[in-house]
What does this fold into?
Amino acid sequence: MTHVLGLICRECGTKYPAVMQSTCFECFGPLEVDYDWEIIKDNVSKEKIASGPRSIWRYADLLPVESENRIDLGAGFNKLRRADGLGEELGLDELYILDDSINPTFSFKDRVTSVAITKAIEFNAEAVGCASTGNLAASVAAHAAKARLPAYIFTPSSIELGKITQILAYGPKMIPVDGTYDDVNRLASEVADLHPNWGFVNINVRSYYTEGSKTLAYEAAEGLGWETPDHVVVPMASGALLCAIDRGFKQLENVGLVPESNVRVSGSQPLNCAPIARAVREGTEVEPLRNFETIAHSLAIGNPADGYYAKKVIDESGGSAAMPTDGEIIEGIKLLARTEGIFTEPAGGTTIAGLKILIEGGHVQNDERVVVYVTGNGLKAQETLMESLHVPTAIRPSIGAFEGVFSDQKVVNEVV
Amino acid sequence: MVKIRFPSALQAITKTNEKELNLKETSIRSVFEELTKEYGSEFERIIFDDGDIRRFINVFVNGENIRHLSGLETEIKDGDEISILPAVSGG
It folds into this structure.
């Protein structure tokens, strides 16, 4: 007996078999994986998870995959870490970080890609692909290389050089497009539609793909000794990650791995591209944006497909949303690096800056147990930070030159 | 001539992924009226919810989302290409 019954439309409830499809043919609503929760409850246990692989696959009983032939580069199990340095700086008693900048391709996308490409292979896909702002592109290219599948990678041509370098190293068919992410996504969707045997991870394999992000909730709960946090702060682009984390906590309650709770879910988006955060703050509908410019390229989605649901999750859970400026995002990157030794990209800076704003606004309470998600590595977007850093002037290789700069460190040893 | 591209989600009704209509100056609303004449009320039911295009459908004219143009009143001219696509994304 399989624990995956098929797919179900989130809007109208129409059911479909488990195939490569992400849209309901009745109402165009998004399809979700339909699980048999009785089978999952019978199979899953804390002990089984504890003895499982040190990756997202320790939660395999809760993921929509049947095959044992997994495309696994080792995503996940990045261990929740207590962040007392950052917590002290921000005035929080109990702050934790789940650091996905250390994943195999240095972003949280490895979680979703590992699930999606394993699933695409179950469906005998001839190739894989994605529309991406860079992080997903690298992850798909890497997992496709491991799976020996051709990968068609669509990105805006304007993404960071570090991301382009990393993507090309894995040898995919990269298609840089002159346009925004939304233009790229439209083109990739049209190409995916013309090639039904290609598994585009965030298009026709999307229903399975988003399930990989739930492991960020599972890992947080496992790290807290199978308890839930009071509040989580999540970066938002399409809103899919935030929804998946919320779903993950609810599923853990459903199968009895954590006590019933109400995790408050808050999101952060860069001020210059904040269609979801603005809708939350202003109590309006999520309105798509056409023209915007932000240093947080990986969050630059003007037309967020899951925006409607992300706003609903935030509103219903009692969370809030923040919209840091580009300057605050840079400060967020530096603050995290300075207090916790974690170097993140602007998306992570957006989350840290957002956390700070939410605390200052009274939306995150000082005594809450807070988990913040750092989703990408700073080495991918170095040029963003360089402009705001002071590179020290080089000195001659002599003690005199060193002491000229650090005169307060001058040491004189007198032999008596 | 105006070209319309249909996603696989509509092809059970349209039986094709592409259709050309002999239209000149008109609006997106009129294009959908023509398509409803061609494919029947089931086509209209899937595209529209309470008179508006469903939330999870994006309609593009020459690559521009009509939500950034004039919505259903967006003007269409000879040679335009229209794409109907499900809303999916995630960078």
User: Anything to note?
Assistant: Chain B has one domain: 2-86. The first helix of chain B runs from residue 11 to 14. The first strand of chain B starts at residue 2 and ends at 5.
